[in-house]
Amino acid sequence: MNIGIDQLAFSTTDYYIDMVDLAKARNVDPNKYLIGIGQSKQAVVPPTQDAVTLGASAAAKLLTPTLKKEITTVLVATESGVDNSKAAASYVKHLLDLPDFIRIVEIKQACYGATAALIMAKGLVALNPQEKVLVIGTDIARYGINTPGEVTQGAGAVAMIISTNPRILKLNQTSVSYSKDIMDFWRPLYSENAMVDGHYSTQVFIDFFKNCFGRYQQQTGMQLNDFDAILTHLPFTKMATKGLNGLLGDRDDKVAQRLRTSLKASQVYCREVGNLYTGSLYLGLISYLQNAPHHAGELIGLFSYGSGAEGEFFTGTLQPGFANQINDVQNDLNQRQKLSIKQYETMFNNQLGLQEKDIQFDTSHDKSHFILTGQKNHQRQYQVN
Ligand code: CAA
């Protein structure tokens, strides 16, 4: 049975900052951010947006009245959850006006969460081929103002439909997952910002990638030259480059050049948006599909990584007609408004966060379809425009 990704959509906020402006404000050589880290712009989140509204916005781009009736399960993967008990999927389902006879779950496993959801969705569809599962990876990456991680912040959501006879990517049988209990990146319940041992996390990512790919080779007999592309989780573009270099070593033959060129195409949108945590690998997939020439039947390897930590290497086969099933991301990114560093800092410091009190946000500037208007009686308030 062919099961895989049938549709893909991406959504981010309406605002961004330029990494040259950020470097100047932080007294850093801009080339450290542009070349050393490999980021050019970063999505900025207004107080009126959160993981729920971003996730709903991505899903709304692919929903039609017919598809709304066909979806059987909504899996929302996030590490920017808005409640310790109630699933973000519950809010998202409501905002999208999906029918009540539907299964809704939130999944957390750091940046690996959307892949966990994808694998679970594949299992559901394998058991009941008529099912269509909506998988959403939605997050806000926050490290804090004037921290080493600040340059790697970002925000956005990817939504995908998993079904039989997929029109984008057929998921292949073998996948390898690898996990260890480590502290490379975490966010205690009392903190809005992530804590990270940045250099350690990069090393763990590279090691997990090598371990997963090595086991995959042993199990399948496949080699690097079998792949048209090998894409990875993208917290910042340089990290993916380091990960692929870990597999390629000193190789600079045609295979290595092809894989490096493919990876570069996958990094185009991350460079403009920053880290999406759960959605990053899948924004990388969209970026690759929209920024490189393709042929149906291509073999694409995907390495998903979530801190804490878990990695998984799996593969998909590109389907004809994939291009019509994805929104035009570059066009959406071109509509965004640039902010000054001061404006970004104000937005960063005025989120709903962990406060208990009632809050009513000024929503007049937010033209989004889904808006967080504030908090009342300890309940988040959302609005559909
Ligand atoms: N011109 C060009 N390059 C320059 C430069 C200049 N003027 N100055 C410095 N550089 C280069 C450095 O040589 C270095 O390159 P290499 O990595 O290739 O050696 C690069 O810029 C970064 O320099 P530093 O290592 O000195 O930077 P730093 O100490 O400020 O930290 C960082 C960088 C560790 C990535 C930090 O930004 C960070 O901690 N980011 C967050 C961590 C992160 O995203 N980890 C990813 C895994 S966790 C994850 O993905 C999240 C999840 O699962 C939930």
State the major sheet. 9 strands, mixed
Number of strands: 17
Give the mean pLDDT.
97
In the CATH hierarchy, what is the class of the largest domain? Alpha Beta
Proportion of strand residues:
25-35%
Radius of gyration: 20 Å
- Which bin fits the share of residues in helices? 25-40%
SSE blueprint:
Blueprint: E1 3-11, E2 15-18, H1 19-25, H2 30-37, E3 41-44, H3 51-60, H4 65-70, E4 71-77, H5 88-95, E5 103-107, H6 113-127, E6 132-141, E7 154-164, E8 169-179, E9 185-186, E10 195-196, H7 198-220, E11 229-232, H8 237-248, H9 254-273, H10 280-290, E12 299-306, E13 310-318, H11 329-334, E14 337-338, H12 341-349, E15 359-360, E16 370-376, E17 379-384
Parallel strand pairs: 2-14, 4-5, 4-6, 11-12
Antiparallel strand pairs: 1-7, 1-8, 2-3, 6-7, 8-13, 9-10, 12-13, 15-16, 16-17
Helix pairs in contact: 1-2, 3-5, 7-8, 8-9, 9-10
Bound molecules: acetoacetyl-coenzyme A (CAA).
Description:
By secondary structure, the chain is an alpha+beta fold. The protein folds into two domains: 3-167 and 327-384, Peroxisomal Thiolase, Chain A, domain 1, CATH 3.40.47; 170-320, Thiolase/Chalcone synthase (Peroxisomal Thiolase, Chain A, domain 1), CATH 3.40.47.10. Helices cover 35% and strands 27% of the residues. Helix 8 runs antiparallel to helix 9 (254-273) and helix 9 (254-273) packs across helix 10 (280-290). It binds acetoacetyl-coenzyme A. Acetoacetyl-coenzyme A is lined by residues 29, 31-32, 35-37, 79, 110-111, 148-149, 151-152, 185, 196, 198-199, 201-202, 205, 233, 235-236, 238-239, 277, 306-307.
